[in-house]
Design a protein that fits this description.
single chain, about 220 residues, mainly beta, Immunoglobulin-like, 8-stranded mixed beta sheet, 3 helices, binds protoporphyrin IX containing FE, binds 2-acetamido-2-deoxy-beta-D-glucopyranose
Length: about 220
């Protein structure tokens, strides 16, 4: 009791309590459209306060060392022609999930590259657009998709990488201002990116106990 009281005092004095609470919940987004609880990260693309938001939802519990599906929601300024997520944190030797807007709907494509050249369509993972989480307005487009094969994959040779469902994983993104030339086709050619970068994504706060139900409801 006394310990609690003095902790409360310290928190009140220094503002720790409030700060800690908002920090802990700041990166979780409960999406009213889809019902998913996403762990999210805003990644800057200009020095002018423009960013792309990456949101990840995974099943909970997700067994360690096993593959699991992931839902990714990308929110990008309309100036972005395509946005790619590299699940292994670099351009080469991992699944690249590329999203773009096509009118009111969205397209998602999985590619893979062994060098810094245009990645090829990759069938070792598959992605499906979740239509209820896909929309656009005058400033942003948003594409939500489910990937099977993005959280466990071979990198080079027989090396397998499994993303940690209980910790953080280093992901990479790239985006181009140029739209794919055949926007209605998920095998469309794409232009090279204008920007790429890396971030640590917290998967520990991405868990959804109702994951499969939510996927089915949002198709
Ligand atoms: C036509 C398609 C693409 C071409 C021609 C291309 C080409 C390149 C080149 C030349 C570099 C080296 C740039 C440098 O070192 O400054 C690079 C780096 C990179 N690219 Fe791409 N790229 C393409 C698509 C993608 C896609 C779809 C992603 C998905 C996220 C991606 C992610 C990256 C990343 C993260 C890097 C940094 C280096 C690394 O991690 O390997 N690229 N790319
Ligand atoms: C436009 O759409 C984006 C993505 O769904 C959303 O985050 C943003 O709040 C919307 N803006 C307006 C003004 O409705």
């Amino acid at each position: 009791m006394r310990w609690n009281l003095s902790l409360t005092c310290a928190a009140a004095l220094f503002g720790f309590g409030l700060f800690a609470v908002s920090e802990a919940s700041a990166d979780v987004f409960r999406d009213p459209d889809t019902g998913f609880s996403f762990s999210q990260k805003d990644v800057a693309i200009t020095t002018n306060n423009e960013f792309i938001t990456f949101r990840v939802a995974i099943p909970s519990p997700a067994p360690a060392g096993q593959p699991y599906d992931a839902v990714i929601q990308v929110v990008a300024p309309v100036a972005a022609g395509w946005v790619g997520v590299a699940w292994g944190g670099s351009m080469t030797n991992n699944p690249l999930l590329i999203s773009w807007a096509n009118g009111a709907s969205g397209v998602v494509s999985i590619r893979r590259a062994t060098a810094h050249t245009a990645p090829a369509v990759y069938t070792g993972a598959s992605a499906q657009v979740l239509s209820k989480g896909t929309k656009s307005n005058g400033t942003h487009w948003q594409v939500t998709s489910k990937c099977t094969g993005c959280t466990q994959f071979t990198t080079t040779g027989t090396t397998t990488k499994t993303l940690n469902p209980a910790g953080s994983n280093r992901l990479a993104f790239a985006y181009s201002k140029t739209k794919p030339s055949q926007p209605g086709s998920n095998s469309s050619p794409i232009n090279v990116h204008d920007l790429f970068n890396y971030w640590e994504h917290d998967f520990a706060s991405a868990g959804n106990p109702e994951f499969q139900d939510l996927v089915d409801r949002n198709l």
